[in-house]
Design a protein that fits this description.
Blueprint lengths: L22 H25 L4
Length: 51
């Protein structure tokens, strides 16, 4: 299982809820989406039938 600890300083708790208002929130959600997309694609590739 892959895990990334992403610490953002000087933002309030659950700052991701302020997407669209805080640049840090938008960036954090973009990083989370990238992480998930990469893992989903890797799993799909690993489970694809061999050709």
């Amino acid at each position: 299982m892959d895990v990334i600890l992403d610490v953002t300083a000087d933002v309030p708790h659950v700052f991701q809820a302020f997407a669209g208002l805080l640049d840090e929130a938008d960036e954090a959600l973009d990083r989370a989406a990238l992480f998930l997309t990469q893992r989903i694609r890797a799993r799909a590739a690993a489970n694809a039938p061999a050709r």
